[in-house]
Write a structure and sequence with these properties.
The complex is a heterodimer of chains A (129) and B (654). With 129 residues, chain A is mainly alpha-helical. In chain B, the strands form twelve sheets. Chain B has a five-stranded mixed beta sheet with strand order 1-33-34-37-38, with no helix packed on it. At the A-B interface, helix 1, strand 1 and helix 3 of A face strand 2, helix 3, strand 29, strand 30 and strand 35 of B.
Chain lengths: 129, 654
Amino acid sequence: MINKSSLMACALASFLAPALAFNAVLPEKAAEAPSTSKPEAVSPALPFELTNKARIVSGRDRFQSTCAAFCHGHEPALFIGRDGLEPQYVYNTIRDGGKGATPMPPWGEVFSPEEIWEIVAYLKSLGKW
Amino acid sequence: MKTRQTLISTLVVGVLASTSALAADAVGNWREYNADKSGSRFAAAPDVTAESVKSMKVAWRWAMPDNAIAADNAELRTWVNESTPIAVDGVLYTTTPMSLVSAIDGATGKTLWTYDPKAYQDGTPPNLGFINRGLTYWEEGADKRLILGTGDGYLIVLDAKTGKPVKSWGDNGRVDLTKGLRRPVDRSLVAVTSPPIVCGNQIIPSIAVLDSFAVGRQPMKSHPPGDIQAFDIKTGKRAWLFQQPPQKGETGNETWENDSWKTTGSGNMWARPSCDEELGLVYLPFSTPTNDFYGGHRKGDGLFGESLVALNARSGKIAWYYQIVHHGLWDYDLPTAPNLMDLTVNGKKIKAAVQVTKQGFVFAFDRTNGKPVWPIEERPVPQSTVPGEKSSPTQPFPTLPAPFVQQGVTEDDLLDLTPKLKDEAKKILSRYNYGPLYTPPTLDKAGTLQVPGVLGGASWVGAAHNPRTNVLYVPSFTIPFGIKIKKENTGVYEYTGTWAGVGGPQGLPLFKPPFSTVTAIDMNTGKHLWRIPAGKGPVDHPAIKDLNLDRVGVPRESFVALTDNILFLAPEGTNSVLGLSSRGNALITQATADEKEPYLYAHDAKSGELVSELRLPGAAFGSLMSYRAKGKQYVIVPIGGAGLPSELVAVQVN
């Protein structure tokens, strides 16, 4: 018989165990591969501080409408408590999508760089990077 | 004039006759995954009433053996737990996400035996990884067998009493479903997820094939085909092979232009079929061919993609077929077994096959010959703008019953609970191309906003029906998907599709409530009786809580099981994708531990009114079932998986 506390303990353990036994949705190869959609935009300067609260809220709303439903979830386990991500790497992945490594679509033609950086700010606010 | 007594005897005889032909098992069994071979999801249990469910309670919980196996190996993380048991004479037989089988005492929840085929040793199965929705029972005299399809593509027959393989069947109790097809099949690309059906003396297994778009991978030029095999229940010898796509000289081959039948794959049947033993026909719901969102390489209608096909179960020969989507570009797989219902339409008795679809239609056919019960019209639909694509100029639209869900998109459909939400919803909509149902996927913007989305509409959850009233209960939901076509510079296909679920403002859904529903339809008339929200939904969200809304429905699917008086409904839990399996063939996910609405609801089956609710220890992730053991009626709810312990929860309801 399983009681509530053991269920929660197990759930917590699985949240803490990072998703590293498999390929996370932000694979190295996607980050390292050159951009095909906007080759000129290799390293746009940060348009604002990633800790800006208004930008984080804006990024969260954009994430909820484009990334959450049936993919990353409204409580995105992939990013909660996540360590070791680089902002530019996350930005590039959102812009270019999975490029054959994951099913993620590219968002570079849909959002402005500033709008993508707001999503990066939101994801950063969930993690430890 | 008949006396009351003779009238009652006539009714009793009538009920017995109808149940023996098709439907519900009268002695408390739930003998098949969908209750019976007609797909009713109905248990005869007249003592389950609006009164009795007010004190429904969790009787026992059963932890699946997968939990211990996965504890030491993160590679073995399962998808959410979609495993639903069957019940025969008080014993439950269940699979688990990793394809183990257990027999459980239905009264106590104690394990009687467990069989482990070690199907997980081959690695993660395709698409959703480790899931197994259930298994199948067969008996002849004292010979009682269980039929299991595994995540690594085998069919296994067990002795139901001992849980040991029947060594005289197939090759020491198993057959390999990847063998004997027209080309070699990579085992990592196929799996059995739905329970096989036994029709006559044939076992007809469903088979899932990698949906390349789901994992972001290019389909192969010669993707595994959607062929259906049948095996003798007593010997395991293959009885017939139905080739999908049809090969040279076979019916339907002419619907594939430029020899595309040679290489196109998928178009398989991952859902469970139905069977009419008296007619000797099995009804197969087929899916979309590769690649799901672009068909420039497979011009033509592409039979039997998205078709309902009735085969003679003994010979495998076609009795009739109906293509529900021509030249599919939307992943509108037929997601569930058709409901076989004995209707009376305008005074005429019709043995019907009723197919609910992802795109929100109910297609009703005379199941003896495939003739539509009500006219189905071919209507013009929007055409593709993707280079090289040739979309079908028309698609079939049933004239009755009416659709049960929003189809296509207009600005008027957007969430408008407050002016601010409507403004934000308009901004989200502006990222997409949109239009009526069957608007094809596009290259520009964030692609086409597809409604219903790739998950439905109706879904793998299917629909329930009461064989005594001929009311059909269809759970459905509205989750739009953005389908964006992208040009490929390498690989087999010039274009492939990407997908993303689309949400609305501030984490609410994009369109007006209800976000999900159950629609009750009188299938004798084709008319809707009522439509209710499925679950409470996000009424407490800060942006709308001041509106004091009642129930708006959860923005996802719900599972149902039906008794004479009560419709049980459990909203699906939520999960978030973490990544891909190490062999790149499946999504890996995390179920939400602190689920907002982990409830089992009991609705009045006549009116739809909510009569009771029970908070569960976790949200449902698999189909519900109901059975009787030692005088008590139970509803089983599969919960957990995907990082949480997988369990069955037994709720006593009488």
